[in-house]
Amino acid sequence: MLDSKIPDGPLADKWDNYKEHVKLVNPGNRKKLDVIVVGTGLAGASCAASLAELGYNVKSFCFQDSPRRAHSVAAQGGVNAAKNYKNDGDSVFRMFSDTIKGGDFRSREANVYRLAECSANLIDQAVAQGVPFAREYGGYLNNRSFGGVQVSRTFYARGQTGQQLLLGAYQALMRQVGSGKVKAYTRHEMLELVVIDGKAKGIITRDLVTGEIERHAANAVVLGTGGYGKVYYLSTLAMGCNSSAIWRAHKKGAYMSGVSWIQFHPTCLPQSGEHQSKLTLMSESLRNDGRIWVPLKPHDDRKAIDIPEAERDYYLERRYPTFGNLAPRDIASRAAKERIDAGCGVGVMKNAVFLDFSKAIKEQGQEKIKEKYSNLFKIYDKINAVNAYEEPMLISPAAHFTMGGLWVDYELMTTIPGLFALGEANFADHGANRLGANSLLQASVDGYFIAPYSIPNYLAGELKAEKITTDHPAFAEAEKTVREQLRNFLTINGRLSADHFHKKLGQLLYNGCGLARSKESLTKTIAEITALRTQFYQDLKITGDEKVNSELEKAGRVADYFDLGLLMCDDALSREESCGAHFREEYQTPDGEALRNDKDYCYVSAWEWKGELEPHELHKEPLVFENVSLTVRSYK
Amino acid sequence: MAGTGLFLCFFLVIHLLGNLQLLLPAAEAKEQFNWYSHLLAGNLFIKIVSWVLLLSIIAHAVYALIITRKSNKANGTKYAYDKRGASSTWNSRNMGLLGTVILVFLVIHLKDFWYVSDFTTMNLDKQGNKDMYSVVVLTFHEWWYVLIYEISFIALGFHLLHGFFSAARTLGIYHPKYVNLVRYTGWVYTAFITGGFMLIPIYLYFNN
Amino acid sequence: MKIYLKIWRQDSLATAGEMVVYQLDEVSSDMSFLEMLDLLNESLIQKSERVIEFDHDCREGICGQCGVMINGRAHGPLAHTTTCQLHMRSFKDGDTIHIEPFRAAAFPVVRDLKINRHSLDKIIQSGGFISASSGEAPEANGLLISHPVAEAAFDAGSCIGCGACVATCKNSSADLFTSAKITQFALLPQGNIERTERVLAMVDQMDAEGFGHCTNTEACEVECPQEISVLHIARMNYEYSKALLLKRN
Ligand SMILES: Cc1cc2nc3c(=O)[nH]c(=O)nc-3n(C[C@H](O)[C@H](O)[C@H](O)COP(=O)(O)OP(=O)(O)OC[C@H]3O[C@@H](n4cnc5c(N)ncnc54)[C@H](O)[C@@H]3O)c2cc1C
Ligand code: HEM
Ligand code: FES
């Protein structure tokens, strides 16, 4: 039975109650305890720095050449906090209920409330670190409303909020590295989790420069390894983003949840050809002034300016008169897909919709638009060589954020004692759909404020435990698995590259388990992925040696994506309802809106690994709502 | 670097002002200039300054050598294909080369004038001052000598064009308000120094 | 279009490297520069050759992981553009493109175009932070910072740490990188307390890492993807001198 370990007491007191009762570790004893933190994004870096500040020995890992490059850098929009600086009625409770509702009632009340509760403190922390948030002329912090909420709670640092927040965390981490309390391992990839007597006790990594397979032992292991949206190949994620760390932990017994809940961001640049490797996100703020439309008639090849007003379909304004172009991400993305599938898509690959600023320019003047979005228009020009002041932009939905991840309890501990998952790597807080600007927050709050309580609470029990060294047979065995897999990749000697398989897999998932899915598409996709997976192990070709070898790195990641992809389909198949980002075509209202089924599916699915190509076992954690009432999301 | 460089820059102004006397009509110039040279030669303070100056030049050159070697070491492997020049000015990248030209010039210059005036005997003029003026005029009678001077001053000009503002940066003048001021002052300064020094040999060559 | 390539291949730091010639016949002008390299690597795999190792991650100009010398210039022909943001439409059919790693003694080659920029992290470790441990921060609006100061701090703080400034500098100096961080914190009231120690430690560390001496050629600002201003270097020099004086007193 899954125990989420939610503390007792009224919602607003739970976190305080928890903090007041956690076990403590004597400062003198802390240096005897080792913690491994994999990941240096907002979650990993803040956690590693915070634990080191407390006095624990920390080892920090990332696959990039510097901890500062984790993909948290890419976040543009902002970070939410219930500061109510604008006096517009925001509060912890309102932020909590917005987040629960935005997640379509598929997240835990206690976790979400804590997120909102700690949000204000994160802004304080970041400001203290020197993060240059936007300010008003009087010197006070500025913020704005974002992602369809009615209050201003999004703090931002130009279009680089993630970069600036991450630099704050990275610098805190570097401070600890400089003082010798953290040892940083860059260009290291975690390839195995070591579990001894049911507890996480270490990891196996590969040094991406020397190729060496290394063993690292610790009293606890923390995974802050980010999201796996890259499973679709084309996504807004970085090229190296992967599921390997969490997937290998999953294979060692950590359950996965919300696996198929993946947010597609509506305002990304469309794929322009077979060569495409990544889809760039254009800030959502563009939808404040841009109008989204497609030609009314399918297969209309005319240029945008040649299509008269009457032959344009402003489908968001048509379907959602209240929210219009500002409809939430999942809804906007799905509506775009619906039009594209109907043959109305535009662009070379007919896979995009127009984002048109002509009305805004006419009403407000080009200068005003320039003032608001000039950097975005510049990026657009850089990538497409198109002047968006004159022609509409082309945008398209792209895989962006994974609500799913490792199942964790209130303490952010997975089903393996001593293994914690933070940030995008866990499933918590966002339910079936994430609200914009909530995930930088979640990653930071997990690392700065929650882990420094919950991990020591676990470590307190470790003081008396027997000290494990890397000579333990479990390390030898884990290392052997890693070595065998790598050797296998190098010796298959087939014909096709890892990228080839990754692109194919991505396409299958996009079509069968993407913005919309059905029993039929999912069953078909499972069969196709299984076949492709078989081919992968027979026909993969990796050149080069065991030292620096990006192809070898890719192979391991793609291998895990295959298994993950299969679980995504199973997860989507098992949930016979539509909620948030999970849209089952069979379960929709007559006018095409998501149809949630609270009677049968108001639970978190937690999947247990049962072996290679064996069906997973489904565990259910019921969701109880005592403080909000389950309503139907409507943006009409 | 900046300290010695700017000290040299300051000295150049004094030096040029003194030399401008050479542009006076010949007879007057001879009297003035020789008197001036005598004044300098006889003054203990000026003696000290001139040694400080020499030390500054040496210190500037030695420091230049040190930073050049440091940079060479910092560079590591050379680029096989290098077009980095596109992103900076030529003189800013070749301060060492320009400086070397200046150094060679200085050796010649000091030997021909400083050494001659201070350490050799020569004719005296009517007032009984050493006749430096005639030495100068005679020297600039050779076209190739004039040419050496002109080339060296061009090198100096480019050195100053970068050096003046670079020194301000090295000293930490960062406020945008002063940045342009420094740049314009640098241009004016460079034009004045280079123009002045370049004019004298040409004037003497054609007027004697 | 057809593209000829001359690419630096080097097995490891211990072995010698050389420029190797390649050719691609079907390059689309819509491709990004890195996608062109993907295409080349795909063809190398088909020929059973080891692929060209190059650094990249976000491919949207923000992580600072990518960066090579393209036709002799850091991040290629366009000013203020990362390698990953460069597109093949900046080249013509039949062009020869020379590609080399960012070079500096403080950036040792890992393999081919991959380098190690650990030295930049070391500079930050020596003092590129404000010591504010988790949990001890005061209320954010308790500290007012004027809009222009916040913006100026942001300008300095927007560095992505790619190292193009070092690569393009004839002196391989890291002054732009170091000074940007020093300026950001010197401007902010939060950074004031550690100001003296910070600048001394960071400048010393920069020297210890083996970077060269800045001679203000300003090439760094031209290539910097974030358009970081060289004036920060002057400011660092000011802060450094002031710190030396203060320390002595
Ligand atoms: C383009 C884009 C824009 C976004 N905009 C916003 C926004 O405006 N507001 C918002 O709130 N959220 C936004 N998000 C989401 C948010 O940025 C992320 O959810 C969040 O930053 C994740 O942080 P993290 O620390 O969990 O992971 P990451 O920052 O992704 O860090 C992952 C770390 O794990 C390491 N790692 C991964 N795998 C391994 C392995 N196998 N071995 C060793 N190390 C490994 C990596 O090296 C890296 O250090 C955006 C996301 C994207 C992609
Ligand atoms: C009258 C003679 C000279 C003057 C007035 C002069 C002036 C200057 C000035 C003002 C600077 C800038 C200092 C800084 O940025 O910190 C400079 C730099 C430099 N000088 Fe000179 N210099 C002279 C002679 C020389 C000589 C003889 C050499 C070489 C042997 C030389 C080599 C250099 C070098 C390499 C630099 C460094 C570049 C730089 O910092 O920008 N200079 N000089
Ligand atoms: S790959 Fe991230 S900046 Fe180029």
TrEMBL record, chain A:
FAD-dependent oxidoreductase 2 FAD-binding domain mapped to chain residues: 34-440
Domain Fumarate reductase/succinate dehydrogenase flavoprotein-like C-terminal: 502-635
Catalytic site: 329 (proton acceptor)
Enzyme class: oxidoreductase
A GO BP annotation: anaerobic respiration
NCBIfam families according to UniProt: PRK07573.1 (NF005749), sdhA_Bsu (TIGR01811)
E.C. designation(s): 1.3.5.1
Family: Belongs to the FAD-dependent oxidoreductase 2 family. FRD/SDH subfamily.
PANTHER family referenced in this protein's UniProt entry, alphabetically: SUCCINATE DEHYDROGENASE 2 FLAVOPROTEIN SUBUNIT (PTHR11632), SUCCINATE DEHYDROGENASE FLAVOPROTEIN SUBUNIT (PTHR11632:SF53)
Pfam families per the UniProt record, alphabetical: FAD_binding_2, Succ_DH_flav_C
GO MF annotation: an example: electron transfer activity
InterPro entries to which the protein is assigned, alphabetical: FAD-dep_OxRdtase_2_FAD-bd, FAD/NAD-bd_sf, Fum_R/Succ_DH_flav-like_C_sf, Fum_Rdtase/Succ_DH_flav-like_C, SdhA/FrdA/AprA, Succ_DH/Fum_Rdt_flav_su, Succ_DH/fumarate_Rdtase_cat_sf
Cofactor: FAD
Annotated keywords: Cell membrane, Electron transport, FAD, Flavoprotein, Membrane, Oxidoreductase, Transport
Compartments in which it is found: Cell membrane
UniProt catalytic activity: a quinone + succinate = fumarate + a quinol
Any single Gene Ontology cellular-component annotation: plasma membrane
Name used for this protein in its record: succinate dehydrogenase
TrEMBL record, chain C:
SUPFAM superfamilies in the record: 2Fe-2S ferredoxin-like, alpha-helical ferredoxin
The protein's required cofactors: [3Fe-4S] cluster; [2Fe-2S] cluster
Family statement drawn from the similarity comment of this UniProt entry: Belongs to the succinate dehydrogenase/fumarate reductase iron-sulfur protein family.
GO biological process: aerobic respiration; respiratory electron transport chain
InterPro entries, alphabetized: 2Fe-2S_ferredoxin-like_sf, 2Fe-2S_ferredoxin-type, 2Fe2S_fd_BS, 4Fe4S_Fe-S-bd, Beta-grasp_dom_sf, Helical_ferredxn, SDH/FRD_Iron-Sulfur, Succ_DH/fum_Rdtase_N
GO MF term set: 2 iron, 2 sulfur cluster binding; electron transfer activity
Positions of the 4Fe-4S ferredoxin-type domain: 150-179
Native species: Mucilaginibacter glaciei
Domain spans labelled 2Fe-2S ferredoxin-type: 18-103
Lineage start: Bacteria, Pseudomonadati, Bacteroidota, Sphingobacteriia, Sphingobacteriales
Record's protein name: Succinate dehydrogenase/fumarate reductase iron-sulfur subunit
